[in-house]
């Protein structure tokens, strides 16, 4: 998965909530920082295959740097709530996505990311 696709996913997730517009720049910066290390670096060229181990490692890196998870993969529910801002559904999202799922820190980070994406996509107006 290339850098552009990952940035688009995270920006879409964050920009889906008006209160989070300020997070766009922060997520771009965090993503770029996470791209500096070999385990989370994605090739610049577009690939059709998805290296799930890199996506999981990148998810953990971004989540840790944004403060919503620690290095052990535990979710900081308060930080997650802060990320969601004043959204009236923030409490429900934290309730649905705020409990750790996954045996390893990268698995837990990826599962959190999936939950947020799933929740945000179903809660968007059609």
From TrEMBL:
Residues 1-16 form the signal peptide. One of its GO terms (molecular function) is odorant binding. SUPFAM superfamilies: Insect pheromone/odorant-binding proteins. The keyword Signal applies. CDD domains: PBP_GOBP (cd23992). Keywords: Signal. Pfam families: PBP_GOBP. It comes from the Eukaryota. This is Uncharacterized protein. It comes from Phaedon cochleariae.
